Amino acid sequence: MAKVKTTFVCQQCGASSPAFLGRCPSCEAWSTMIETIDERRNPAIAAVRPHAERPQPLTVLGASVLKRIPVPIVELDRVLGGGLVPGTLVLIGGDPGIGKSTLVLQAAAALANDRGPVLYVSAEESAQQIRLRADRLGIISDQVLVMSSTDLDAIVATASSLAPALLIVDSIQTVSVDDISSAAGSVSQVRECTSRLMQWGKSRDIPVFIIGHVTKEGAIAGPRVLEHMVDAVLYLEGERHGHFRVLRAVKNRFGSTDEVGVFEMAESGLREVRNPSEAFLAERHGHATGSSVAVTVEGTRPILVEVQALTSQSAFGLPRRSANGFDAGRLQLLVAVLQKRVGLALAGQDIYANVVGGMRIGEPAADLAVALAIASSFRDRPVDTDLVAVGEIGLSGELRSVSQIDRRLGEASRLGFSKAVIPASAARRGTVDIAGLSVQRADTVGEAIEISITDS
Ligand code: TYD
Ligand code: MG
Predict the structure, then answer these.
(1) Atom 25, ligand 1: which residue's CA is nearest?
(2) pTM value?
């Protein structure tokens, strides 16, 4: 194939240059010139461009356009928004070693049983290594076709001749096209490869999974260029040495981004956790200080998690504050509220807070549970073991209402908790009356602490 013409375009001001420049001649920014294929001069790509289409009235476009392919792994299916839309491009991101390849191989096997051949292309591992993993996962399917290649054009050509039910490329940072001179993993390569896979999948209605590694900065390389190109971005999160993994959608053109899927990494691959609350609370010790239970809602699912905190006299001038599983800034804020509004002398204390099980909580509804855990550790008195805490904490120490309180309390009652402390304002709004649960209302975090931690 003739060499495609490329141009270097500044990502900041749009100036272009035929050759690579370290600094943009127009806006003078450094390292912003990125190699891009000049489409106008590239007949091969211009030919793929669909013909101009006549616009249609919105009402004529039937809902039946979205015929979804159900994925037999329920937790994955849920995060995708209830099945795979044909032609979707899904990016699965996560830290190295978290289990991305394992997840897609299991998805490949599950889908291949129902839908026919799935092509799994690995640019990182040999076919032999994939075979070893498949053995470990107990996959014996002649419908999962494996290929080890880093050449994207070869991958697309093979996929075209096979017309699989699903194409998986593991990973996008290790494949490349010849037309671009920069190395695999560079912004230009990653973007070009993704855009070719997108055109390929969309023109054939075949879903494509691409795997992306998260770089040190936490963004999928290169600098989030992929996230806006693809239809869905799923992140597999968790602590590498812990066994829970949470699959979360951060973008989904065909579904909600609130849903999470919970898995457990076992000897033979990822196992679905249908009952996350039970799993997250399984190792909880009664009567320990610095432990409380929060109820978080992920999409439509309430999940109970244990929050732990440890306060200890700081040996240095500047005390340490460390949060695992929720925002560190939020921890600072809660500590400040506890100091100023409740009068806890936390100024000279190192404070560590942790959400058990590798779950990340993004919503402020867990504020109260975190505050209770800190107060409990500081006073060295346990939080009532039968109690769950729900509520956002405001800057003046007031408890603020949170959404879906009934659903949260319902889950707590189902798991055998007998008490709950909630914001007073929440009770006035809804109908908080759950069987078997004694619900106590508090106006402030100070009141909630008095209710939950008994100084006996
Ligand atoms: P892998 O899917 O290769 O991670 P990624 O593609 O995200 O880099 O899996 C990584 C880890 O998972 C590896 O350290 C071993 C572990 N693992 C299990 O515990 N059980 C299993 O069945 C498999 C396949 C892997
Ligand atoms: Mg991998």
Answers:
(1) 269
(2) 0.80
Average pLDDT over residues 34-57: 66
Provide the residue range defining the domain that includes 379. Answer: 279-452
Kindly tell me if the per-residue pLDDT of 429 is higher than 60: no
Q: How far does CA 388 lie from the centroid of its chain? A: 26
Q: Closest Cα to atom 10, ligand 1: which residue?
A: 97
* Ligand in nearest proximity to the CA of 123: 2
In a domain, 65, yes or no: no
Q: Ligand 1 center to residue 240 CA distance, Å?
A: 10
Q: What pLDDT digit, counting tens, does each position of 229-288 carry?
A: 999 999 998 877 778 899 988 889 988 887 889 999 999 999 999 888 888 888 888 778
pLDDT digits (tens, 9 = 90+) for 120-178: 999 999 989 999 999 999 998 899 999 999 999 999 999 999 999 999 999 899 999 99
Q: Do 269 and 284 sit in the same domain of this protein? A: no
Residues with CB under 6 A from ligand 1: 94, 96-102, 133, 136-137, 265, 267-269
Answer whether residue 57 is part of any domain. no
Tokens of residue 171, six digits:
């990973």
pLDDT at 18 (0 to 100): 86
For 93, 148, 283, 308, the CA distances from 137, given in Å and listed in that order, are 21, 19, 26, 34
Short-list 41, 34, 107, 40, CA closest to 69: 107
> Whose CA is closest to 454, among 370, 407, 385, 391?
385
- Indicate whether 427 belongs to any domain: yes
Contact 435, 416 (CB under 8 A): no
Mutating to test ligand 1, I would choose from 102, 220, 265 the residue with most ligand atoms within 8 A of its C-beta, which is 102
409 and 316 both lie in a single domain? yes
pLDDT class for 223, splitting at 50, 70, 90?
very low
Cis before 188? omega within 30 = no
Q: Which ligand is nearest to the Cα of residue 105, counting in written order?
A: 1
- Give the position, in ligand 1's atom list, of the atom nearest the Cα of 95: 7
Q: What is the DSSP letter of 111?
A: H
Give me the chain's average pLDDT, please.
87
